[in-house]
Amino acid sequence: xxxxxxxxxxxxxxxxxxxxxxxxxxxxxxxxxxxxxxxxxxxxxxxxxxxxxxxxxxxxxxxxxxxxxxxxxxxxxxxxxxxxxxxxxxxxxxxxxxxxxxxxxxxxxxxxxxxxxxxxxxxxxxxxxxxxxxxxxxxxxxxxxxxxxxxxxxxxxxxxxxxxxxxxxxxxxxxxxxxxxxxxxxxxxx
Length: 190
Hints:
The protein is an alpha+beta fold. The chain is built from 5 helices and 10 strands, in the order αβββαβαβββααβββ. The chain is 22% helix and 25% strand. The chain has a 4-stranded mixed beta sheet with strand order 8-3-9-10.
């Protein structure tokens, strides 16, 4: 949904929303054109997903320094990690340039910050196309904060663990018996 990791075959968010409504999902909402979708029912489809409850996402958002934002002066991204990459040692595997890139590990994610004036000097762009890149999904710090806010205010229609199990093979970052957000094919599903 939105731009896939390979950067090919961009999919219309309006088209994704329409397809999800056609599947019988209710209260389908999208947030910016990078694959963020929130809805209220599960599909029963077998898909690979990254499951994250609100508490886990809140902990990730709390790990982003307040002054680390995505604005005219800096870029700040959250690299959400698939289970097999979720270890502090991921920092040793990422291509970063000391003095340019700042990285911080928190369970389930790496937060990356670079001054806008140094984006061209950053080594993090070298991750694109690598095997590591296929096992992460990236959101701006601003998007993570907004998704956290959107799901914090939602109290009805949350998937339960049994419903997540019914989806089939699942990449589980965390499981929950409450509010669940799914990372699916480049998009967030709730």
